[in-house]
Amino acid sequence: MPRRTAPPAVSVHSASIADALALAALDERAFPPADRFSRRVWRHLLGSARRNRSALAVIALGADGAVLGSAALLLRRGSRVARLYTVAVDPAARGLGLGRRLIAEAIARAPRRCDVLSLEVRAANAPARALYERLGLRAVAELPAYYADGAVGVRYRGDLAAVRAVASR
Predict the structure, then answer these.
(1) Is 24 buried (19+), middle (13-18) or exposed (0-12) by CB count in 10 A?
(2) 66 by DSSP, 3-state: which?
(3) Is 61 helix (H, G, I), strand (E, B) or coil?
(4) Residue 26: pLDDT above 90?
(5) From CA 87, how far away is CA 37, in angstroms rounded?
(6) Which residue from 54, 93, 116, 162 could staple onto 81, CB 3.0 to 4.6 Å apart?
(7) Tens digit of pLDDT for each residue in 108-167?
(8) Distance between CA atoms of residues 3 and 48, nearest Å
(9) pTM for the structure as a whole
(10) Which residue has the higher pLDDT, 53 or 30?
(11) Cβ–Cβ under 8 Å, residues 163 and 132
(12) What percentage of the chain reaches a pLDDT higher than 70?
């Protein structure tokens, strides 16, 4: 089956603290309970963490203003590693290439000092893992009982410039 592509009416821009409630609602639709960010977590990421430049987030909106997806990076001061902390796509918008676009938009905003992208994902999340591998990321560690519900995680890492080049195609 051919891959659907995101309609051009989808806009992606930097998320703000005003988006916290909508992003928490997106997480409710997109993730199992153990993986969801609460409004409080989103307010932190989009508030104090954003102000001190330790986090950035992007949000995808449909033509009707509906939140279709988000991605967030964590950035440690002085670190060369940008950590992809979350990528969420509304179940109704999956298969449109929106996850790839969100990653591209988020890493395009990463500080120039960052040259490594790192992330953790559930070992059982085959679609996400396939996307990360298509972007050039490589599994570097298995993380037993990494998630709150005891699920196994996998850490991926890759050259940020190489991932940026592939993701932006």
Answers:
(1) middle
(2) coil
(3) strand
(4) yes
(5) 11
(6) 116
(7) 999 999 999 999 999 999 999 999 999 999 999 999 999 999 999 999 999 999 999 999
(8) 38
(9) 0.92
(10) 30
(11) no
(12) 95
Phi, psi of 36 (to 5 degrees): -80, 140
Q: How far apart are CA 109 and CA 72, in angstroms?
A: 10
3-state class of 26 per DSSP?
helix
Pair of tokens at residue 69 = 């997806």
Q: Are 67 and 91 in contact (CB under 8 A)?
A: no
Three-state SS at 13: strand
Read off the tokens for 30. 């997109």
Q: How many other β-carbons are positioned within 10 Å of the β-carbon of residue 154?
A: 20
Q: 57: which 2 tokens?
A: 């987030």
Count the residues in the chain. Answer: 169
* Structure confidence by residue, pLDDT tens digits, 70-92: 999 999 989 999 999 999 999 99
- 3 state SS for the chain: CCCCCCCCCCEEEECCHHHHHHHHHHHHHHCCHHHCCCHHHHHHHHCHHHHCCCEEEEEEECCCCCEEEEEEEEECCCCCEEEEEEEEECHHHCCCCHHHHHHHHHHHCCCCCCCEEEEEEECCCHHHHHHHHHCCCEEEEEECCCCCCCCCEEEEEEEHHHHHHHHCC
Distance CA(72)–CA(52), nearest Å, equals 15
